[in-house]
Specification:
The chain is an alpha+beta fold. Helices cover 23% and strands 23% of the residues. The structure holds FE2/S2 (inorganic) cluster and fe (ii) ion.
Length: 441
Amino acid sequence: MLTQAQNDMLTRTGPGTPMGALFRRFWVPVLLSRELAEPDGPPRRVTLMGEDLIAFRDSAGRVGLVEPRCPHRGANLFFGRNEAGGLRCAYHGWKFDVAGRCLEIPTMAADAPTYESLRARAGVVAYPTREWGECIWAYLGPAEAMPPLPELEFALVDPAHRYVSKKLQECNWAQSAEGGVDTAHFSFLHAPVSEGAVAKLPPGYAEQVRWMQLDGAPRYTVVEHEAGLILAGARRANEAETYWRIAQYLLPNHSLAPGGAAGQTYHGQTWVPIDDQSCWIFTYSWNPERPLSDAERAAYAAGAAIHSEVDERYWPVRRRANDYLIDRELQKRESFTGIKGISEQDAAIQDSQGLIHDRTRELLGPTDLGVSAFRALMLRSARDLAAGTAPASAMNPAAYRVRSGLVVTPEDLTFDAVMTRRFGHPQGRFDLVGQHAEAAE
Ligand code: FES
Ligand SMILES: [Fe+2]
C-alpha cells in the first residue's frame, strides 16, 4: 500500500514531476525504427511523458524529434513537408533540421539585415535520438547528464536473432510494469483450467504449468544490483526440487521475463508513458544462440509469447473497448480468463485496475514482495534525484547485460548458487565480448 502522495510520485511522469525527471535521465524508446522507414517519409506524431512531439527521418536518415509548434505563427509541423535535409512548415515554408535549427526563412530576403538574427532565434526544441535494437530512442534530460545507451541484450545481438514490436497499453505505466515483477500471477491469470488444455501444451511446459497450478504461493527472493532488481519466485517441483522463475527489472522501465530455460528464446518489455493514463510497451524476443526463424517471427507478429496481436496503429485487437473479446465459455472450460493471448490477459487485468491504480486501497501479501521492492526502488530513485543524486545505473550501461529465466534445482541451494547454476553469474550477467557489442551512434 502507498500513500496518495507516493502513488502520485510513482505514476506521474509529465514535465516537472519527480518520476518524470527520473525517466528523463535515461534513453527511452519512442518509435520502432520501421515506423520511420524512409528518409523524407511522413513525419509522425509522438506523445511522450505528456509532451507532444513530431518525429521525422531526414534525407540523410537521421531522426529528429522536435516540438510540434512552428516558431513563426504556431502551425503544427505534423503537416510539414519532409524534404532535402529538414522539415518545412506547410504554412510559410520555414524549415528545421533534426537538431531543431531553423535552416531557412523563405518569407524573407536572405540578405535582409535582420534575416540571420531572426533565423538564429527561430529554433524549435529538439531532443537527441539514437537507433538501437530496431527502436528509435530519445533522451529528454539535461544535456550535461546524457548517458550511454543501456546494453540490453536484445539490442546487442545481431538483428537476425531478434524480433521487436510494440503495443498500446490503456493504463498508467507503473501498474503495467508491476505485472512484469509480479510473476506469482502466472499460477492464475495465464493458467489453463482443464487437464485437456494442459495436455495440449508441449510436455516440458505442461510439467511447469502443473507446478504453477499446484503451488500458487511462490516464495520470493529479491536482490538489488547496479541496474535494478532480480525477482525470483520459487515453487515446489518434483520431490526435493525447486522450480525457479527469475525475472529482472531494470531502471527505469525495462523487465525481462522469467519463463525461458537455458538456450530458449528470451523475452523482455519496456514501458514508455504516453501520458499518465496510457503507455507503449516495446516488446522484444531474442535468442543469443541462433537466428529466429520466419515461422517464429510470424508467430510473434500474430501475438505469440508476450507480443500482442495489433492493428496498423499498434493498438491491440483485443483491448479495453471490446472487453478483450473475453469468451465466457472458454473461461469455463479452458483458460482462467477466457481471453486469448498472454499479453492480452496481462493488458486486460492491468487496465482493469483503473486508468491509474489506486495503491492507497490494497491488501498486499507475501507474493507481493517484488511489487513492493519495485515501488521502493522507483520512489527512492526519484527522491534521490530530486535531492541531487542522479541514478548511477544510467551511467553504467554494462550493468544492463543481464538475463532472466527459469531453472529447476535441488531445494537446498543458496540463491547465489541458483543464479550461478542458471546463468553462470550470481546476478545473471552475460558476456558478449566482441559480439555485436558496439553501441549505435
Ligand atoms: S507558421 Fe510555420 S512558417 Fe509560418
Ligand atoms: Fe502476465
